[in-house]
Amino acid sequence: MTRHFLKDTDLTPTEQAQVLDLAVELKAAPYSRTPLAGPQTVAVIFDKTSTRTRVSFAAGIAALGGQPLIINPGEAQLGHKESIADTAQVMSRMVSAIVWRTYAQAGLEEMAQNSSVPVINSLSDDYHPCQILADLLTIREHRGDVAGQTMTYYGDGANNMANSYVLGGVNAGMHVRIAAPADYQPAAEIIAEANELAQTTGGSVMVTDDPVAAAQGADVLVTDTWVSMGQDSAGRDDEASPFVKYQVSQELMNLGNDPIFLHCLPAYRGKEVTAEVIDGPASAVFDEAENRLHAQKALLTFLLEKR
């Protein structure tokens, strides 16, 4: 049965740990595995612009012995002249995997339902699971075993990053805190899924509108831009923004357990994080960015070996 990775919980806790172990191995020996030797081709489809996703997947696919086929907006019939289902059936006869950075989660699900090769969500409006794998790898490198550690996310708690931090973090046995304004907190179904998962992993999730309480004793502080791609910025990033008090500052960092700081980038200094924090000694954002490469190579290898 073909395995896909459309959301964080498509990997079991055990499988997630296996992918992270493999990422450590591939970071140490980048060319030690070549599941795409041939070279086989991986289609990497972009409906949204990208830096880290494009470079990390292109470089990673090549390092695994394959060839990335980058498809930018307007370069395929997908979604306007040809259905997702038909596109999936055509592509999966020609490529070994499909990576898609898109908008609707439903489109990814339809692609996977009609594909005979692995489909990977490289970002959707609902989840960003590849980023979370990179973040977990970074936490492991800087803090040791991720299970039992506390990670606090600040900002828009109802966006794709927050959803994936909740699910991916709890999947890893972490204690995840979401600090967000009352009108920007995770959907009830996301919290319910995380709470159910926590019963087996030992993790937990807490949602609060109190940024100070959320920082107390945290091992990791993380944030994201206040305006996600495609959103209207009106009222989100000005002085009256509801997110202003959720800016990650050194004062918040000082409340944690000697925490590291993470941000998926691009970052806006003076908005969601101060320059003092993101450019300071506790910042691991560039390790985190590099780890997109290693985590995604491990994910591709894992999925290809499961075929």
UniProtKB/TrEMBL annotation:
Domain Aspartate/ornithine carbamoyltransferase carbamoyl-P binding: 3-141
One Pfam family this sequence matches: OTCace
Claim: Transferase is one of the keywords in the record: yes
GO biological process: citrulline biosynthetic process; L-arginine biosynthetic process via ornithine
Top EC class, one word: transferase
InterPro entries cross-referenced by the UniProt entry: Asp/Orn_carbamoyltranf_P-bd, Asp/Orn_carbamoylTrfase, Asp/Orn_carbamoylTrfase_sf, Asp_carbamoyltransf_Asp/Orn-bd, Orn/put_carbamltrans, OTCase_ArgI
Signal peptide start and end residues: none
An example molecular function term from Gene Ontology annotations: amino acid binding
Catalytic activity, EC: 2.1.3.3
Coiled coil: none
Pathway membership, UniProt: Amino-acid biosynthesis; L-arginine biosynthesis; L-arginine from L-ornithine and carbamoyl phosphate: step 1/3
Residues where carbamoyl phosphate binds: 50-53, 77, 101, 128-131, 264-265, 292
SUPFAM superfamilies in the cross-refs: Aspartate/ornithine carbamoyltransferase
Domain Aspartate/ornithine carbamoyltransferase Asp/Orn-binding: 148-302
Reaction catalyzed: carbamoyl phosphate + L-ornithine = L-citrulline + phosphate + H(+)
Entry's localization field: Cytoplasm
Annotated keywords: Cytoplasm, Transferase
Family assignment from sequence similarity: Belongs to the aspartate/ornithine carbamoyltransferase superfamily. OTCase family.
NCBIfam families: orni_carb_tr, PRK00779.1
Name under which the protein is recorded: Ornithine carbamoyltransferase
Organism: Brevibacterium sandarakinum
